[in-house]
């Protein structure tokens, strides 16, 4: 899970045709993050800011577990799946886990589940953590200094003379 703790972790977001997503979508940045936790988790910058917030709340392991499960679903090959499943189990689910998440039924989990891994083996636990974040941490994040300061910076950038000049140039081009 070293990849998960890297500040550069998060797969590139692509559109339906596999091209990097355009920054010219209707909503972006904090406006998009505020629409839903799903939208926030689709944006690498949003994930970074949410992690920053959760770290201050001593619950960063929740989003790290969720991200690890998302990455695990894409894992190919039984051996790689076993290795990643064991890593997830040891990091987040075992009683000795360094970043243990609090999920229902955890006491019944044992390493035997790692013998026959499958892409959705952590789905129920991942859903629990997602709901915990959605109905608890996410609403506090939207009121946090981290979110509000980022939003303020975005608004200042949008209202800067350079941004307005570019917008005017763009409107002249499209209105001809």
What does this entry look like structurally?
The structure is a single chain. It contains nine helices and no strands. It is mainly alpha-helical and 176 residues long. The chain has a domain at 30-148: Regulator of G-protein Signalling 4, domain 2, CATH 1.10.167. α4 runs antiparallel to α5. The longest helix is centred in the C-terminal third of the chain and has 20 residues, at 123-142. The N and C termini lie far apart (53 Å). Residues 5-25 have low confidence and may be disordered.
What proportion of the residues is helical, as a percent range? 55-70%
Order of secondary-structure elements: HHHHHHHHH
Low-confidence stretches: 5-25
Mean pLDDT over the residues: 82
Q: Please state the CA-atom Rg, rounded to the nearest Å.
A: 19 Å
Question: Could you please say which CATH topology of the domain at 30-148 applies here?
Answer: Regulator of G-protein Signalling 4, domain 2
Shape descriptor = elongated
Distance between the termini: 53 Å
Strand content: under 5%
Largest beta sheet, briefly? none
Overall CATH class of the domain at 30-148 = Mainly Alpha
In CATH, the architecture of the domain at 30-148 is: Orthogonal Bundle
Number of strands: 0
| Secondary structure tally, helices | 9
Name the CATH superfamily classification of the domain at 30-148: Regulator of G-protein Signalling 4, domain 2
Structural class: mainly alpha
Keywords: GTPase activation
Domain RGS: 36-147
Region (Disordered): 155-176
Protein name: RGS10 protein
């Amino acid at each position: 899970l070293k990849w998960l703790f890297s500040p550069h972790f998060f797969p590139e977001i692509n559109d339906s045709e596999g091209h990097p997503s355009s920054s010219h979508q209707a909503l972006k940045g904090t406006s998009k993050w505020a629409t839903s936790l799903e939208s926030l988790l689709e944006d690498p910058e949003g994930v970074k800011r949410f992690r920053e917030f959760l770290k201050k709340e001593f619950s960063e392991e929740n989003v790290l577990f969720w991200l690890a499960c998302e990455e695990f679903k894409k894992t190919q090959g039984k051996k790689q799946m076993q290795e990643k499943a064991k890593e997830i189990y040891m990091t987040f689910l075992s009683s000795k886990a360094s970043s243990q998440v609090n999920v229902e039924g955890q006491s019944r989990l044992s390493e035997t589940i790692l013998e026959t891994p499958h892409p959705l083996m952590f789905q129920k636990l991942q859903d629990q953590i997602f709901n915990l974040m959605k109905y608890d941490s996410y609403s506090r994040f939207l009121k946090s200094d981290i979110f509000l300061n980022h939003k303020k910076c975005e608004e200042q950038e949008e209202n800067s003379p350079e941004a307005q000049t570019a917008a005017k140039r763009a409107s002249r081009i499209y209105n001809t």
